Amino acid sequence: MRAKTQISRILWLETVAFMVIIALSWLHELTDMAHSISGIEYVPDWVEATTETVMVVLVAIPVMILTKRLVSRLYQLEGFLRVCAWCRKIDHDGEWIPLEEFFERKFETATSHGICPACLVEAKNKMRKPQAA
Predict the structure, then answer these.
(1) Is residue 133 part of a domain?
(2) Phi and psi at residue 44, in whole multiples of 5°?
(3) Angle at 53 between CA 32 and CA 23, to 5 degrees
(4) Which domain holds residue 58?
(5) pLDDT tens digits for 14-39?
(6) Using CA atoms, how far apart are residues 45 and 57, in angstroms rounded to an integer?
(7) Which residue from 13, 114, 129 is spatially nearest to 63, judged by alpha carbons?
(8) Which secondary structure element, helix H or strand E, spans residue 90, and what is its range?
(9) If you placed Cys at 96, which of 61, 77, 78, 89 could pair as Cys (CB 3.0 to 4.6 Å)?
(10) Residue 95: exposed, middle, or buried by beta-carbon count in 10 A (0-12, 13-18, 19+)?
(11) In this predicted structure, what is the pLDDT of residue 2?
């Protein structure tokens, strides 16, 4: 659930940023900024401001869609557990710990040992076969 919250926060910040760009465009159009800064005669151009707004929205939509996809993929990749192929320890915050300890730390879950049906059959078959000397 943390990933969805982070994605929502990032998209919200992007939306705010694009809204600030639109607001600055309209602020420029509604005020006499050009005249007060450089002395140029102020002529409001509502068509230009509307065009700028439409262009910003047309850029914002694909940027936000791509950002959502990229951040979702990033969280998916970060969610993978690295397991040692030899000893089966798990990389947790840069420390290699046994699976049981990982569950204890991460999920506050105690573990117990058992045997799955497939391993039970294999163990029984090994015990039945006479071992070669």
Answers:
(1) no
(2) -65, 140
(3) 50
(4) 2-78
(5) 999 999 999 988 887 777 666 677 77
(6) 19
(7) 13
(8) strand 90-92
(9) 89
(10) exposed
(11) 62
